[in-house]
Specification:
Blueprint: E1 2-7, H1 19-36, E2 40-43, H2 58-68, E3 73-80, H3 86-99, E4 104-109, H4 114-120, H5 127-141, E5 146-149, E6 154-158, E7 172-175, H6 179-188, E8 191-194, H7 200-218, E9 231-239, H8 243-250, H9 253-271, H10 276-281, H11 285-288, H12 294-299, E10 303-306, H13 308-321, E11 325-330, H14 337-351
Length: about 350
């Protein structure tokens, strides 16, 4: 199980940090993570979500990060295809791959905000079509000139420049929420990015379904060129030497997750029909009501907080379950950067080396 980092570029008013400070301190954290040997770092694309996420131009931030790091994989999680012209996406992807010397990981998604759809002039009814055509074009963009003719995009003999270093293209991922998307991702041969607003008991079901669908579609042989069978999930995390200090500081996670659920509660409510077993037992109700607590988030497997021993124990269950990529929102933007840096150091030295079982090392 590889360990990555997750950033929303949160600028909560009560933290007293400016946008400029958050941007530059996050770049410093990524530089440290690179030195400490973390596998990768992911940045979201969100718009008009004051305080919760100021990451509306992630490709620019990732370009800056590419010059501050040398080994860290850089993930775009995700490019919302209905908001972005796919040819411009392909151009930016290739440029980022070049600037990072082949370290880009590309996540794509449909988005969920009616406000964003309205402003960017896209129709939610076309979102699946954007995904289908977008993947076709992204897969072809690294090769010679090609033509495309479908509902959303039509062009003849187009040579998209520049070309990515990674061939045939950087690893492809999709944001996956509904059970149908996990099956679709397996069918398409791309990895899935799950969380951070779904509890672990739901994600475990998604993990089993994805692995089963992949085997049905592709068997157990080696991956073909361009395929990615990774399963990644995102959780909040804070690891400090003093468990009491970690828990006190992590109380701020409730603000982050409340804002996250404010954005995604309608999506989660719709999922109840797809997870009827959990709906019937009432397991989703706490997340659909206001009033989150750190203890509740821990019980749902959405955050891990404590000293190194506690974090090793709690994080190792994801490796045992078969999660390929664990993406940690260390501090979740709710603690000073100095605390996040302490946590990164401790995770790298006293937690990550012991996460995978001996047979997987």
């Amino acid at each position: 199980m590889k360990i990555d980092l997750f950033y929303e570029l949160a600028v909560p008013e009560h933290q007293g940090r400016s946008e400029t400070q958050v941007y530059h301190e996050t770049l410093d954290e990524l530089s440290l993570a690179d030195q400490l040997g973390f596998h990768g770092a992911w940045l979201v694309e969100h718009h008009f979500m004051r305080e919760y996420s100021h990451s509306s131009a992630p490709e620019i931030f990732l370009a800056a990060a590419s010059q501050r790091t040398s080994k860290l994989r850089l993930g775009h999680a995700v490019v919302v295809l209905p908001y972005n012209h796919i040819v411009r996406v392909a151009e930016r992807v290739a440029a980022l791959d070049i600037l990072s010397n082949g370290r880009l990981e590309l996540g794509v998604g449909r988005g969920f905000s009616p406000k964003e759809y309205q402003l960017f002039g896209s129709q939610m009814a076309d979102s699946r079509q954007h995904m289908q055509e977008g993947l076709q074009i992204l897969r072809a963009a690294g090769g010679p000139a090609f033509s495309h003719k479908d509902k959303l995009y039509q062009f003849e003999n187009l040579d998209i420049l520049p070309k990515p270093i990674q061939r045939p293209h950087p690893p492809l991922w999709t944001a996956a929420v509904s059970p149908a998307t996990f099956q679709w991702a397996a069918q398409e041969g791309i990895g899935v990015l799950s969380g951070p607003f779904k509890p672990w008991f739901m994600i475990k079901q998604d993990l089993r379904a994805y692995k089963k669908s992949w085997q049905q579609q592709h068997g157990q042989g080696p991956l073909q060129a361009g395929q990615n069978n990774g399963f990644a999930m995102t959780i909040g995390c804070l690891c400090l030497e003093d468990a009491a200090e970690a828990r006190r500081l992590a109380e701020g996670f409730t603000w982050y997750y409340q804002r996250l659920l404010d954005q995604t509660r309608p999506v989660l409510a719709q999922l109840r029909e797809s997870y009827e077993y959990y709906h019937r037992l009432g397991f989703l109700e706490p997340l659909l009501r206001r009033g989150l607590s750190l203890r509740m988030l821990e019980s749902m497997g959405m955050v891990v907080v404590g000293d190194p021993e506690t974090c090793r124990k709690k994080l190792s269950r994801y490796a045992r379950a078969g999660v390929d990529r664990l993406i940690l929102a260390v501090g979740a933007g709710m603690v000073p950067s100095a605390v996040t840096r302490r946590s990164l150091q401790l995770l790298a030295e006293e937690v990550i080396p012991f996460l995978n079982p001996p047979e997987a090392r």
